[in-house]
Amino acid sequence: MRILVLGGFGFLGRHVVAALVARNHTVVVGSRYGAPHPYDDPADDPHERREARFERLTSPDAWAPLLGDVDAVVNCVGILREYGRATYERVHLVAPAALAMACAEAGIRRLVHVSALGLSRGARSRFILSKLRGEIALKRSPVPCSIVRPSLLEGPSGYGSRWLRRVASWPVHFVPVDAAGRIAVIDVRDVADAIAVLCLRAPPRRSQVMELGGRSNFRIDEYLAMLRQIQGNGRRARKVAVPAVVARIVAHACDLLHVTPFSSGHLELMRHDNVPAFNMLPRLLERAPHGLGSTLITPTGWDTVRQAMWSVESQEY
Questions:
Q1: Residue 292: its pLDDT value, please?
Q2: Distance of CA 292 to the CA centre of its chain
Q3: Which residues lie closer than 8 Å to 283 by C-beta, 6 or more apart?
Q4: In the β-sheet with 208-212, what is the strand arrangement from edge to edge?
Q5: Distance of CA 116 to CAs 2, 44, 51, 146, 177, Å?
Q6: What is the rounded distance in angstroms from the CA atom of residue 260 to the CA atom of residue 127?
Q7: Which residues pair with 148 in a beta bridge?
Q8: Most CB atoms within 10 A, among 31, 152, 177, 254?
Q9: What are the residue ranges spanned by the domains of the chain?
Q10: Domain 2-155+185-212 carries which CATH code?
Q11: Distance between CA 229 and CA 307 in Å, rounded?
């Protein structure tokens, strides 16, 4: 098959490309940068590139040139913050809805869209609401699509993952007092493999939602403590509970300054559980998911990570 991976140079997108190539498919990478950079080594990136700026792809006609010779489309594009014309509305709602219409017109029946867990109609965050509205639009589109909702992605090359590991290494962990929600941290390689499986399946008769999570779930303070121990920091960090109003101010400041992955949307998600109602990951993979932390340490198996987890959970702060 010839598969277009939108956001193919992003954290998840890179792993989706690798999972598809491992299954002997031809991949076309859609990204903001269609042509190779003059200093790029073609050997490092043998895939065809096509420019895909979602803020401009707001109609089916605009999508048509990208879809002419592909059999399936995977949309891994999402933005943490708005910049210029790349607004939440355009990137998470208008462009994906136009993409689905364009797929229908091109006769493409396989469309996989990556969303997120924890979306709620009562959310205040425009990031969350735009993701939710994007899902609703796709469910109403003429092409039945597979909507993938992963929990927090773990991996060595992700911006958020690197930042969380850096925070975990600090001697003090500042945690919002109302960050009581649990997250089912999931290995990015498992999500990529699940998406590759969906690409190979027969097109669904109607849109389907797949919630994906890892083996265990944690509060954010528990996860930071576990990361710290896996990284070899013997002394436990001191946990400082940050008042809710202070956490909101910090989150909005991060939004305005475009610094760190922490945002008002993430703060809102941390207040509620982000775990699958029914975890489709083992069924899609037909194997057990990777052990939590396996991308951070040598892959010695789940037992090593589980022992670290139990040790952390037994600590008193």
A1: 65
A2: 16
A3: none
A4: 48-51, 26-31, 2-6, 72-75, 110-114, 146-150, 208-212
A5: 26, 30, 24, 13, 23
A6: 16
A7: 114, 210
A8: 152
A9: 2-155+185-212
A10: 3.40.50.720
A11: 10
- How far is residue 34 from each of residues 59, 62, 83, measured CA to CA in Å? 19, 15, 19
The residue ranges of the chain whose pLDDT is under 70 are 34-45, 292-317
Put residue 168 in one of left, alpha, beta given phi > 0 → left and psi -120 to 50 → alpha: alpha
How far, in Å, CA of 298 to CA of 155, rounded?
Answer: 13
Q: CA 162 → CA 18, 56, 148, 212, distances in Å?
A: 21, 30, 23, 21
**What is the pTM (predicted TM-score) of this model?**
0.85
Note the pLDDT tens digit of each residue in 57-104. 999 999 999 998 999 999 999 998 898 899 999 999 999 999 999 999
Q: What's the pLDDT tens digit per position in 103-119?
A: 999 999 999 999 998 88
Report the amino acid identity of residue 188.
V
Token output for 290: 């990777």
Q: Point out which residues pair with 186 in neighbouring strands.
A: 153
